[in-house]
Amino acid sequence: MTQTKLNFRLTDEEDRYLSKVLDRLIAKGAQVDVVNQAREHILEHFQEARVQDQNSLEGLGTADHFVEDYLKRSNHNSSRTFRYVSILVFALIVYGGYYLFLR
Length: 103
Description:
Layout (H helix, E strand, L loop, with lengths): L11 H16 L4 H20 L11 H14 L1 H25 L1
Helix pairs in contact: 1-2, 1-3, 2-4, 3-4
């Protein structure tokens, strides 16, 4: 497990997923800021999933798919990538809140 900047510990699965994504981004020659942004987005997703008591890896797809999609979006427009992840996080929050109230 890895201690993150967001003050929670990653599970072994989360740590493996994050490592695979970062390794693949670096192997594809992504700039340091793109790698760091991807790392922060994934960590934020993990944290939000925990707050909503959901599987943190659900919805991210495979590491290869995430990297391809992330690079495609970051090359097209880096602000669009931020909006995409923000929308995913917002959807997770709304869906999680909806789920909690219907229990």
